[in-house]
Amino acid sequence: QSKTSDRRTRDTAVMIRSVIVGDHEKTDGGAKKSKPLSVSDLARVKAQLLDPKSARKIVDHLHTMSASLTDTGSVNTGPIHAVCLDAIDKEIHEQHFVQLGSVATATATTICDALANVHLVNLLTAPDMGFGAPASSPGLLAGAVPSAETIIDGLQQITPQLLALGYASSKAILPDHKGVIVPTDRLSVLTYWWGFEVCMPPPTIEYLSAAASPGTTLLNLLTALSVVSPEVREVLPFIRYIAQFVQTEWQMIKAADKGKGVVCCATWIMPVAMVPRPWDFP
User: Fold this and answer.
1) Residue 204 half-sphere exposure, CB side, CA atoms within 13 Å?
2) For residues 80 and 191, is the Cβ–Cβ distance under 8 A?
3) What is the distance between the alpha carbons of residues 216 and 269, in angstroms, rounded to a whole number?
4) Residues 138, 121: contact at Cβ < 8 Å?
5) C-alpha pair distances (Å), 139 with each of 19, 87, 144, 146, 189
6) CA atoms of 72 and 200, how far apart (whole Å)
7) How many Cα atoms sit within 13 Å of 103 on the Cβ side?
8) b/e string for 222-236 if b means 16 or more Cβ within 10 A?
9) Burial (CB count <10 Å: 0-12, 13-18, 19+), residue 68
10) What is the pTM of this model?
């Protein structure tokens, strides 16, 4: 029964890939386009994506699949883009949105003014992390100069601080598409060929829980991420749906938290069918 269910789930994941990127079968005569999906196939895919339990299994399969049929194993299965803001969520709100209120009711001019000085960090580049640099410099650790006491105490104190942020590894310095280090102190967004993930670590969960409206607060943060960043601008049309999902399903999202945070994901073909899962990044 479980094998049959797993095969059915994988078949659905293959169908989703076909809808998003198209599948082609290779024959001796060249490339032959695969048979288009029927209305009943698409209806079945939709029904499975709307069911949180089956949707989670489908996304698990999509995570292991490449967009190309010619790739096998875990080749090219990581995120295409991954970004976060250059400050924690609370600081972003205080610096850019406290006067603005909600972007849902603000004018285009006031939104542009509020986002004028917002800066992003690309989690897939391999640059200087900004350690020891001024706060205005790029890099997640810009402005985070250790105190004299920390320097005296040595790496024993510095290392746990970096580990708490999730950056103390070789992958943090030279990340690739498979080994992106997702921040554990602020909201981040990852996009894949099949969909996207909104990553909410404990500080984000705590901050949204304390907000009068979790959905509105998240809408502001997602607007800053998607408007300023060309890398994840593809999620811009869906941020209101994401915020509405968070607003209406906040208790379900918090219930998915096992102490390390929550990741909400969705596919491009059904971006409103979001599925929360416990944090499973390193």
Assistant:
1) 32
2) yes
3) 24
4) yes
5) 37, 10, 10, 15, 17
6) 30
7) 26
8) bbbbbbbbebbeebe
9) middle
10) 0.71
* Start-to-end Cα distance in the chain: 32
Q: What is the DSSP string of 216-239?
A: HHHHHHHHHHHHH-STTGGGGGGH
* 85 strand-pairing partners: 120
Contact 165, 172 (CB under 8 A): no
Angle at 93 between CA 92 and CA 99, to 5 degrees: 125
Rounded Cα–Cα distance for residues 250 and 272 (Å): 15
φ, ψ of residue 116 in degrees (nearest 5):
-60, -35
Instruction: Quote the tokens at residue 239.
Output: 């941020």
The C-alpha torsion from 158 through 164 and 165 to 170, rounded to 10°, is 70
The span from the CA of 136 to the CA of 269, in Å, is 38
Instruction: Name the CA radius of gyration of the chain, rounded.
Output: 20
Q: Write out the two tokens for 172.
A: 């943090």
Distance CA 281, CA 262 (A): 10
Which letter does DSSP use for residue 145 in this model?
P
Q: What is the pLDDT of residues 130-167, one digit of tens each?
A: 544 555 555 545 555 444 444 344 434 444 444 444 33
Distance CA 235, CA 80 (A): 13
Which of 146-150, 204-208, 261-265, 268-272 comes out lowest in average pLDDT?
Answer: 146-150
Neighbours of 214 (CB within 10 A): 21
